[in-house]
Each structure stands twice: as structure tokens, then as C-alpha cells.
């Protein structure tokens, strides 16, 4: 096969990982696939600083047009991160008929429709396996091997930082703030961790996965999002005592007329496959009408795992005479603002007659029944911790109960959803 010429937009952590993988393993990839790869240009802010990589000076450029407007470059790999200028550069590359490979979930998610439309118009390829789950081939699985399925449900641990924090909190009984500081010191969390701990990163990824799995555009602004900052060691300990493990999950469900798309902390039964995924690992659990249950697990971040997925996409882009284009319905299904779940409700309640009756009465008034209840630390005249786990109930009904409780006698401290 004729040499495939690449341009890299960015040479930081991910771009440098791709450069290293092609330089050290490119000949083996060529042997296996028959596709010789050559990086002609790599965009950097300053030629003097490029991550310490051994890159020839003639490859480095500070001018984006050396990549976007060069007719010899066939595939543009974007590693700039963030929304802009990454999105506009990818759009220009596609406009010029160049296939694009990216790991940028934010730019892809926010500009998916226009990038997809441009790729369709010019016949160029748009590949983004590394945008969700790093080395886990979840996007390829949904679009190819599992295409003959109605995928009904996705549940994913798609953010390694939050999974690491929750794993440490569970193992050590530590509080969120203490583990976060340690994760930042170790380089496992960003100095500003908001994108991870508030669920933005996972929401971008769910927007991509949900759109592909359900063939209906799921925009990120319609994804319900709640982070882990309100989770306490007490929540995790009480959940474990009741047989549950806490994870931050991206959840998508196709309910027929509507789609659920939500990111929030979830209690899972301890024997659920996702409950056993610890540390910074990622995993995605799928349910389809034909294949039934499936889970893919692996490294969801890091330069080497992400580079592996990117080079895989480069090879596909080089080999495909016609680039795949995901099917999306012209009229997308609405994303529901209400859903059914079980709920873990932790309260501080007065140790006095009638408190339990008030709580259960308000729940019953909304048609919500109690699955389990636990009380801790009761003292005459004082307040005890009261845990209620409901049967499956509507989200809005549970929130109405929470707002209706009299805080003078029963103060809700946290509400966490429970999935089977």
C-alpha cells in the first residue's frame, strides 16, 4: 500500500504518545496491516518545547496551514484538547477532504452534527474511538460487531479520576476532599478537577455513546449531570453495609419513545460487574436484545492506551475506501427529564415518635414503597442517621418527597440513585 501521510495537531501527552507509538512500533503495524505511516508535520506552539520527544525539526511547525492545507497529508490527527480551535481545525481538515482522527470528546460532542455533515459532504472519514474509554474499543463495537442489535442500555464508568477517588474512599473510609488532594498530588487529578468530579467529562462521553447506541442524537445539554462532590465516607460505608458499591456512572437507556441520559453517583449491587471495576480503570456495560449482557473494561486514559486506539483509527481510515457514517434518526427521540430508579436517602432524624411515620407517609403519598430501612446512632432527644432505600420510583416523585420533609425533624443529607 502507498505510504499514508499524517499531520498531528498537537504534540502534548496524547500527541507525543502517538508519535512514540508510530516511531517505535510503526514497522510492526506495517507488517501486520500493509499500511506504512509517516508523520510529515506536527503542530506545536513553540518548536523549542514539544514534550521532550525526539522529533526532527523539519517535522515541527507552528503554522496550522502546514497541515490543514497540505495536499500530501491525507489524515489529520487532532490532540489539542478543548472545544476551540480544535473543532474549527477538524472542520477545515474535513472540508479539504482529509480524514480526521481525534480523542477530543469535548470538541466532538459539541460539534458532532457539523463535523459529521462535513465528513458526509466531502467523503472524508471522521474517527473517534479514543474519545470514550481510551483503549477500550467501545465505539467500534457499537458501530460494527453489535450493529444487528437494539441496544437498550448503557452503563459506564468512563472517568478514571472519579473511579480512583471513590475506590480510595471505599477502601480507606476517607473523605472526598482528602482523597482528591492526594490524587492531585499524584497527578491523577487535575489542579482544577471540575470537569471530572462534577461529571462534565462523563457527560460528553455519554452524549457520544448514546447518540451512536440509540441512533438518536443525544446532546450534552440534555444529559442530567451530578458529580461526586457531595458523596461522603458515611454514604459509602452505609451503602456497603446494605450490600452496595458506589460508582459514578454514565447511564443511557432507550425506553422506546424517550431516551434516558444521566451522569451521577450510583449504588450498584456488590455482585454487579461494574461494581468490581476499581482504581482508574474504565468499563462499559451494555445490554442488547440479541447479545444480552456484555462488558468491556480497560485503561480509559493515559498516553499509551489512547495512542493505541488512535493508531487503530488511523489504520481504519487508511484502509477504508468508503468511510463509515453512523446512522442517526432525522427526528431524534426526546431525552427524558424523569426516570425510574431505586433511591438511597440518608437523613438526620429526631429520635422521637412519629418521625418514621412522617417519612413513610410522605413516600406512600407519592406511591413510593420502602425496600429497606436502617437507623444508626439513636439517642434519646438527639438525632439519628436514618437510611431509606425505596423500591423503583419516579425521580420527580422522590424529589417532591425530599422537598416536603420538615427539616426541623428530618433533614435529608444525600440522595443517591440505586441501579440493579
Report on this model:
The protein has 420 residues and is α/β, with parallel strands linked by helices. It folds into three domains: 4-131, 3-Layer(aba) Sandwich (Rossmann fold), CATH 3.40.50; 138-299, Dihydrodipicolinate Reductase, domain 2 (2-Layer Sandwich), CATH 3.30.360; 340-418, ACT domain (Alpha-Beta Plaits), CATH 3.30.70. The chain contains 14 helices and 17 strands. It has helices spanning 13-33, 65-68, 86-95, 105-110, 112-122, 138-143, 160-172, 176-185, 194-197, 200-214, 233-241, 303-319, 355-365, 395-404; strands at residues 4-9, 37-43, 60-61, 75-78, 99-102, 126-127, 151-157, 224-225, 244-254, 259-269, 281-288, 292-299, 340-350, 370-376, 383-390, 393-394, 410-418. The strands form two sheets. Strands 7, 8, 9, 10, 11, 12, 13, 14, 15, 16 and 17 form an eleven-stranded mixed sheet that branches. Strands 3-2-1-4-5-6 form a six-stranded parallel sheet, sandwiched between helices. Strand 14 (370-376) and strand 15 form a beta hairpin. The protein starts with a strand and ends with a strand. 45% of the residues are buried.
Features:
Alpha-Beta Plaits, Rossmann fold, eleven-stranded mixed beta sheet, Dihydrodipicolinate Reductase, domain 2, alpha/beta, 420 residues, 17 strands, 3 domains
Secondary structure layout:
Elements: E1 4-9, H1 13-33, E2 37-43, E3 60-61, H2 65-68, E4 75-78, H3 86-95, E5 99-102, H4 105-110, H5 112-122, E6 126-127, H6 138-143, E7 151-157, H7 160-172, H8 176-185, H9 194-197, H10 200-214, E8 224-225, H11 233-241, E9 244-254, E10 259-269, E11 281-288, E12 292-299, H12 303-319, E13 340-350, H13 355-365, E14 370-376, E15 383-390, E16 393-394, H14 395-404, E17 410-418
Parallel strand pairs: 1-2, 1-4, 2-3, 4-5, 5-6, 8-10, 10-17
Antiparallel strand pairs: 7-9, 7-11, 9-10, 11-12, 13-15, 13-16, 13-17, 14-15
Amino acid at each position: 500500500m502507498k505510504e499514508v501521510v499524517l499531520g498531528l495537531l498537537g504534540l502534548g501527552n496524547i500527541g507525543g504518545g502517538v508519535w512514540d507509538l508510530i516511531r517505535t512500533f510503526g514497522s510492526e503495524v506495517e507488517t501486520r496491516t500493509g499500511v506504512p505511516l509517516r508523520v510529515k508535520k506536527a503542530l506545536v506552539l513553540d518548536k523549542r518545547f514539544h514534550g521532550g520527544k525526539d522529533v526532527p525539526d523539519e517535522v515541527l511547525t507552528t503554522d496550522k496551514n502546514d497541515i490543514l492545507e497540505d495536499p500530501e497529508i491525507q489524515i489529520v490527527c487532532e490532540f489539542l484538547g478543548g472545544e476551540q480551535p480544535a473543532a474549527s481545525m477538524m472542520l477545515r481538515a474535513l472540508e479539504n477532504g482529509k480524514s480526521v482522527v481525534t480523542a477530543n470528546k469535548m470538541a466532538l460532542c459539541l460539534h458532532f452534527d457539523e463535523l459529521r455533515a462535513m465528513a458526509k459532504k466531502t467523503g472524508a472519514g471522521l474517527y473517534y474511538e479514543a474519545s470514550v474509554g481510551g483503549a477500550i474499543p467501545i465505539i467500534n463495537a457499537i458501530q460494527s460487531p453489535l450493529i444487528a442489535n437494539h441496544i437498550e442500555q448503557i452503563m459506564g464508568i468512563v472517568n478514571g479520576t472519579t473511579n480512583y477517588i471513590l475506590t480510595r474512599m471505599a477502601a480507606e473510609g476517607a473523605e472526598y476532599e482528602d482523597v482528591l488532594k492526594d490524587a492531585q498530588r499524584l497527578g491523577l487529578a487535575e489542579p482544577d478537577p471540575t470537569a471530572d468530579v462534577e461529571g462534565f467529562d462523563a457527560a460528553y462521553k455519554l452524549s457520544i455513546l448514546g447518540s451512536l447506541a440509540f441512533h438518536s442524537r443525544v446532546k450534552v445539554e440534555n444529559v442530567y449531570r451530578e458529580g461526586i462532590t457531595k458523596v461522603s465516607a458515611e454514604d459509602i460505608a452505609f451503602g456497603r453495609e446494605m450490600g452496595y458499591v458506589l460508582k459514578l456512572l454514565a447511564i443511557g437507556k432507550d425506553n422506546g419513545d424517550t431516551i434516558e441520559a444521566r451522569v451521577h453517583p450510583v449504588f450498584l449491587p456488590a455482585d454487579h460487574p461494574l461494581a468490581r471495576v476499581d482504581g482508574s480503570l474504565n468499563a462499559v456495560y451494555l445490554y442488547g436484545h440479541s447479545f444480552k449482557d456484555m462488558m468491556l473494561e480497560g485503561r480509559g486514559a493515559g498516553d499509551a492506551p489512547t495512542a493505541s486506539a488512535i493508531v487503530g483509527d488511523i489504520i481504519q481510515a487508511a484502509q477504508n475506501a468508503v468511510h463509515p457514517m453512523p446512522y442517526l434518526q432525522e427526528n431524534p427521540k426526546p431525552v427524558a427529564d424523569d426516570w425510574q430508579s431505586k433511591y438511597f436517602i440518608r437523613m438526620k432524624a429526631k429520635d422521637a415518635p412519629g418521625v418514621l411515620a412522617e417519612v413513610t407517609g410522605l413516600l406512600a403519598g407519592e406511591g413510593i414503597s420502602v425496600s429497606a430501612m436502617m437507623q444508626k446512632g439513636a439517642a434519646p432527644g438527639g438525632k439519628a442517621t436514618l437510611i431509606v432505600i425505596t423500591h423503583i420510583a419516579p425521580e420527580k416523585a422522590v424529589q417532591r418527597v425530599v422537598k416536603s420533609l420538615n427539616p426541623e425533624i428530618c433533614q435529608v443529607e444525600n440522595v443517591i440513585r440505586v441501579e440493579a
